[in-house]
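User: Some background: our group keeps a shared notebook of sequences we're curious about, and every so often someone picks one and asks for a predicted structure to add to the entry. Today it's my turn. The entry only has the sequence so far, pasted here. Could you supply the structure so I can complete it?
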Amino acid sequence: MVEKINETLMDNSGRLVGVEFVVIHNDAGSMTPEQYIEWLRYREKSLGIAHYYCNRNTIVRVVDTYNIAYHTGDWWSNIRSIGYEVCESMKVSDEEFLENEDITLMQATEDLLYYGLPITTDTVRLHHEFVPTSCPHRSLALHGGTTESVKEYFVIRMNELAELGSTVEEMLAAIDKQKDEKSETTELAAKNLAVEENGEMGEEEVAEETTEENTEGISGDLLDDNQNNPKTNDEIADEVILGLWGNGAERKQRLEEEGYDYDAIQEIVNQKLSE
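Assistant: Of course. Here's the predicted structure to add to the notebook entry:
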């Protein structure tokens, strides 16, 4: 479970005029959220401080979300937004960075839901939209290289997370449950395959056991039956929104490997999320 640490380091900056959007940053550094606490404690705050510092293990909040933080270098956006630093962007592997980023998006999702805001490209912003900067540099490199591609990824992912729960804890619990269900389904498929290969069970018995397992609530997102019993694009789009097909390039690869039209399904996903 991800640890949350609240360590207020600045409380004299004044109140936000309101929370209108969130701003995602990459820290361009190698420190963990815990290390940022001490580094920021004695640093001149006007040089830059966000509300949150996040990685795959820890979420640190150093400025209350109703107070101003100095994270964009632009006063207009500072007094209207909550800022999030994805930590270790110059240190960790792509896989670890994406985990850090996902936890950050969970916290941003929680805050947007708390303040009653929709998750759109208007409420999810990037640092370089306000001042000339390469931030968020690592997210740009991993999600298409443009403002639009990164924001599209963030918005889709955050809407997926919002479907799982209203807090980081609820989102993580739902993701763990999905992983457990997928593991159980994979084990069932392997068992059925082994039985068929060994000739110890006929086709009728395999079908009967599979039906019995499905009625016990095991998720049908294992896709080895797609060729015989394909799901509709609309059904697959619902599974995509629930996070059952992964994200980004992984999602595209998995859908295409199972014979689905990625572009058609993504269009349905976008339509559902905009409703």
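Suggested note for the entry: The beta strands are 3-6, 21-26, 52-54, 58-61, 81-86, 124-126. The radius of gyration is 22 Å.
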